[in-house]
Write a structure and sequence with these properties.
Arginase, Chain A, about 325 residues, two-stranded antiparallel ribbon, alpha/beta, eight-stranded parallel sheet, about 15% strand, 10 strands, about 30% helix
Length: about 325
Amino acid sequence: MTTHDYDKGRLNLPFVGIPTFGKRPYVQDWSAIEADAAILGAPYDFGTQWRAGARFGPRGVREASTLFSFGHAGAYDHEDDRTYLGPDIRIVDIGDADIVHTDTAKSHANIETGVRAILDAGALPVTIGGDHSITIPCINAYQGRGEIHVLQIDAHLDFVDERHGVRHGHGSPMRRAADHDYVTGLTQLGIRNVSSTTKEGYDDARKMGSDILSVRQVRALGPEATAARIPQGARVYITIDIDGFCPSIAPGTGTPSHGGFLYYEVIEILQRVAQSHEIVGIDLVEVAPPYDPAEVTSVLAAQVLLNLLGYVFEGANGGGNGPA
């Protein structure tokens, strides 16, 4: 039996130790981030309009991610005949942004500070929410860092401008993104059924550069043609709402919507986008562990993120991904 370097030291099984994301190193000092990618938790869910609980999303996804922490020498994929996220890819977990209960402005500002710290360090920001309003400060952090295109996986359009004076709830992140002149367009996939936005919102989204596809439309196109709709040369920010998936595989969310994507439908699109575009940021939101006692939603979220990171850095080896 051959003994490898990664067999030396502690076994460090998934249920042992402190559950950072993927059991990667924890960096407390945000001015001392040295990594290719950094994980930030954004445990904020005051923007919800129905069921709260996504404040526990970062903790749940981190816990679930330890299931995939065996890959000391990377994760070999026999279909692609590649090893993803090998020891040369440095991923760290910088903990959570500080959330100030009932104060959206301060909480969002603290999230933005975390994303900016990651970008300033030259690493790829990966933010785990929290409700979808946390994408607002994430996108704000790209001010002055060049143009970006937003790829959204979601059941809901999230293009509400204002409701009773509220402009920063979880129904508005894509509208707030489109307000920025450095956001050149949005590709919104999985939007279906009765949604979070009125017809006027859809009309406004299209006028402001959105390409909107339902699950059925994406299935008719296939992953390759869907990914090809993103403009060539665009620098892409990816936001994944877990309710974009079918609640049969992702029940742990506040606003489930039947008829959603299955795992490979999303992951094949993400792989193609990562291969063909520069990925400058990622967030995954709306995981609400209290609604899923089996924790499969958190496992799905962790699996999607780890696979996506593998695709991003495999793409970077051949074509230069990463933040500005």
